[in-house]
Amino acid sequence: MTLVVVVAIGAMAQDDAAFSHYWLGKGYYNPAAAGDLNAIHMNLGSRMQWVDFRRAPMNFYLTVDAPYKLLGQRLGIGVKAEYERIGLFTNTRIGGQLAYRRKLGKNLFLSVGIQPGVFSQAFRAGDALSPSDATDPDPAIPTHDISGTAFDANVGLFLSHPRYWASLAVTHVTSPGIELKASRDDPEIFEFKVGRGYYFMAGGNIPINNTLFEIQPSGMFAMTQNVWTAQAATMVRYNRMFNIGAGYRWKDAVTAYIGINLKDAYIGYAYDYPVSSISRETFGSHEVFIIYNVKLDKREKNKNKQKSVRLM
Questions:
Q1: From 281's CA, which of 25, 166, 241, 310 has a CA 20 to 30 Å away?
Q2: Range of the domain at 44
Q3: pTM, full prediction
């Protein structure tokens, strides 16, 4: 007879990263944003939070998506991969994105999307143990490295127009419990619960008449584990090339943004300065976002057809 020990460590797993560039990372939170652009859209985001802290949160993610037509229906397809390190935990999330797009009016689309995937987590126990743990171990703290994987899924709705957009998403809809253990046959199991997240985002693009300037306001409201937060940002774009802006995350940080468009690419940087008591211990957080679009030609017939030399 095998004895299985299950210990719950912590209350919930780390939620999705709170990116200051949330309006650029729509696909990070919402799979329904896949295929919104007429391009193969690649988005690489990174966040280094509270850089002065030891083992401070660090997050990298990549999304790639594109529009696709099947049997006359507008679809969006994509993939998302993410790596996160926070304290003694490392999280890896991988999923595929599928969105169904419906045209509601001139240049107005509504999409519904789903992102099935896996959530893998590992805990580095060796870094958590102190000399006293060897003689008086805490049963709630693993004494060896453990890891586990569970099915995970995100869903969402996305409304898009050249002048405005809105996004509603639910992440980790199944609120999966990840069973962490040292090996497949290890009878000792530590369970970690992933909290469900709710995200609402919206933004717009307002050109200023007779100038080369555009104003791009946006905001996001998020709730995870019965705790809510909100942030807002306003970007000013000049000549569709240079971007500068400012933002605020409720009771957490003020943000300064700068970015540049280089033909089909965008490079953006954000600096968060904390306004809470944590400012006594850290100078802030940094983000870098890199976007690259490969434009697609949707014309059914190419006007500049070329024949193979073998057929001439």
A1: 25
A2: 5-133+141-197+265-271+289-295
A3: 0.86
